[in-house]
Amino acid sequence: MSPVRRSLLQEKQKKSLTRSGVEYTSLESDNLNLDSPGQASPRLSSSSLNLNDDNKNNSGSPSSRPLGVKKSKIKRKIVDQTTSVINTLEEGNKHFLEQLKKSSEQRQHDLEIQKHPNVREYFEVVKAQILQKRGHQ
């Protein structure tokens, strides 16, 4: 096989190993003998290598977890965070509602006080004094 063709095949294989800007290194690409008939399909041996790697990961090594366990853990974490945010918002809404009720009660009380003629007259006198002081300044 010509050196040009060999370099083109190696370049093509490197492009197939690169995905989304991350380059995956292949030990097999360095030791490839393209002239031998046993290595007629380098992709086949590559995929068998990947299958063996997958079997090692699923054999129950203590450092890796099955994909389903990871997904369920992430999902549970998201649900817990969402629940926490919802609870915080509900507490804030309750506090805000209490403040609105208090201010509403205070306004109602002020209206009841203003109904009395003596109290109303006093407020009008104080208001006139305040406006007079502001006018002189």
UniProtKB/TrEMBL annotation:
Region feature Disordered, mapped onto this chain: 1-74
Biased composition annotated in UniProt, kind: Polar residues: 26-43
Name the record gives this protein: No apical meristem-associated C-terminal domain-containing protein
Source organism: Brassica oleracea var. oleracea
